[in-house]
Amino acid sequence: MKAGPQRTVDLRLGGPALAAWLAAGLLIATPRPVVVVAAAVLWAAAIGILVLFVTVRRRRERLFTPMIVSRSREPMPEGGLGVWAALAVACAVAALVASAILAEAPNRVPTALRTAASDHAVVTATLTVWTLPVASQSFGPAPGGVSGPSNQASRGRFRATLNTLRSGDEQTRMSAPVLVFATLPADSLRIGEQVRLTGSLVLTDAGDAASALLFGRSPVEVLTAPAGWLDWANTLRSGFSATAAGLPGDGGDLLPGVAIGDTSSVSDELDLAMKASSLSHLTAVSGANCAVVIAGIMLFGRLLGLRRTWRIVVALIALAGFVVLVTPEPSVLRSAVMASVVLIVGGLGRPSRGVATLGLVVVVLLVVDPWLSRNYGFALSVLATAGLLVLAGPLTRSFSRWMPQPLAAVIAIPLAAQLACQPVLLLLSPTLALYGVPANLLAAPAAPLATVIGLVACLVGPLWPGAAAVLAHIAWLPSAWIAAVAQTVSGLWGNRMPWLSGFAGVLLIAVVTVLALALLFRSDDPGRSIEPEPEPEPEPEPDGVPARRRLLARWPAAASAILLIVAGGYLGTLAGAGISRAASFPSTWQIAACDVGQGDAVLVRDGEQTALVDVGPDPTPLAACLGELGIDRIDLLVLSHYDLDHVGGLKAVLGRVDTALVGPPENANDEWLHDRLRAGGAEVRVAARGDVGTLGGLRWEVLWPTRSGTVAYVGNAGSVTVQFDGRGIRSIFLGDLGEESQNAMRAASRPGAVDVVKVAHHGSGDQSPEFYAELQATVGLISVGADNGYGHPTKRLLDLLASVGTVAMRTDRQGLTVVAPSTQGDGALTVWTERQARSK
């Protein structure tokens, strides 16, 4: 039998969804007057285009009315009216988003919050907890198996709403979203709890989901329990997490994430492995989870004999409860709202079209919360869904020319999602996951089993603990399989292929993807359905041409697509990081010590933001290092002091610095350096103990020198010492501090344990044993030149580092040295060097 009629993709809401996204993404980071003007212009454009559309349509109706001969007439030709109607809707949607931003923005950053952050005031805040705390595990095992301080395990981060803020004698009520870094109570926080915390505030960049970062100076104090409509979910989550905690290995750690999206027990190593193998989406609640909930309720309702309307109502209520259970993360909201729309439209007896429904959901969510437009989780969720709706069908048909259709569909589904998400994934990490599709194919049979059985175990836990334990053990097996696939694939050679970073990389991958798909689909008929349809009967061979010859004639298109992808990938490799280090260079690096000879130049990176501590003696090697690492902009420059080996390379970054932290100028030459930085557009700030700020998700704090005191520390002794903390690697940069100033700084600031220390004064012997013993660093970076004539690093310093378990990494012997969170699971850090890659 022949295939039935085929439907095309309904893209009518694609334009409005894109307009809403662009408007939200741009306007949330612009000054309020600009948003006011944009809203006015967009509303005027929408109304004007609508009036024009209605006027032209009425004129056409009058023109064609005399031509009606009978009661049935030919449809009036629309011409370009459809385009104008779509443009009017897009402008109206964008205007609605702009209006939502105008209404919400003042509440997000009230004056009291802004003032407290700018004054670096110590504040007391009451907050409502809205996400499960994520433990801060910045201290992994040191060499020899010695762990860092045990009290660090109680530190964590969580998102909350700031309800009241007390600064001095003044208390202000507000409702501002904040990200909190603090010491957690012995019993982990629950969603919906009211808590109190003393700390300091740092405003985030415009457009960030959180208005400010709150760094606690005291442990979190719980004030009130969650409301009843929230606490039932806390009970279910905590009970299921306790059950899963008794299961062995990575399978037990991963099970709550796969079943209900609770990743609080997932280790850093397993999290990195899931991301490196393109399996992290399995721990993010998606449309599949919502479909399971709805299908289960609808089936159970039918068995009970409920009418269809009541089954839909109960399913919607259950879906709302599920959102509360798994917490309303952006991907959850997208999935739940889309599932609700499909359910309601189906209940009204009307067919739902996937792409149109997705567009409607995007518009609704961005109007309700425009700050979702810059959320990577929301973007990946929308793009993955769009990829499945638009590409999965055509890919399945194309692949089915060479393989059985069921196998083609199994391959096409993860490939469609990965192709759609790849541009955004490149913004997170400029690499391509070569084994992402095979990893998903291996994990695909286990994922639904772990999800469904784990969810049932979670729900029945309070009612029947024994059955819940049995179900959790059953769900552990597929969960352990997923974890094993992730760990294995992430450790394979060439798992991540370097690619161009930034907009150039996104544009290149988009062009390569479009061309490859065009070549792959060029033999397909235009307008084919992208939805499942009956398989057509085999057509007779034309003119007796053998099937083998026709099959071979189609191979050039597929071969061209494969060659184009491979060629584009290796062009990105050559332009980005170089083939020689493609297999081992950690794309997730956070610290990089440049080899600039006898001098300091160390980079700290988080997301798209970069700090540079000192610039070395010569701009040439620094410029080469920045180019090799793909660094174009320095968000934060720290000049520890004014010796030539720390400031001589300043020319390499002039005009590329946003903020510069410097020590007090000692002479006219120092002032001249400040003037050069200001002329290049940098804000120059004289730093002292107590200065704080953020770099992406990291918090930096100046520990030394003090602003006043009986002793004036200048030169080496007054080196600006900065510490980075918050997530990832905790580090400290000591400039050229000697033993006396190290002890003075230690007494004044108590920096505590760190993961990485930039060893003071290129490894001279003037060091404090007590200070390095307190730091307990896993890695000590020594920025030093070969044959420097000073004997750096000295035997005393190397012996000192060895005695406290700190591994010395020297730029004179190992060249460029890069430190990243480990992906191997055998230690806290991965250390890559230009001449030797190693992990610690």
TrEMBL record:
Membrane topology: Multi-pass membrane protein
Keyword terms of this UniProt record: Cell membrane, Membrane, Transmembrane, Transmembrane helix
Family annotation (Pfam families): Competence (PF03772), Lactamase_B (PF00753)
Record carries keyword ATP-binding: no
Keyword Coiled coil (UniProt): no
Parts of the chain that traverse the membrane: 12-29, 35-56, 81-103, 279-300, 309-326, 332-348, 355-372, 378-395, 407-429, 441-464, 471-493, 499-521, 557-579
CC annotations in GO: plasma membrane
Metallo-beta-lactamase domain location: 598-787
Signal peptide (UniProt feature, chain positions): none
Subcellular location: Cell membrane
InterPro entries: ComA-like_MBL, ComEC_N, Competence_DNA_uptake, Metallo-B-lactamas, RibonucZ/Hydroxyglut_hydro
Name this polypeptide is given: Competence protein ComEC
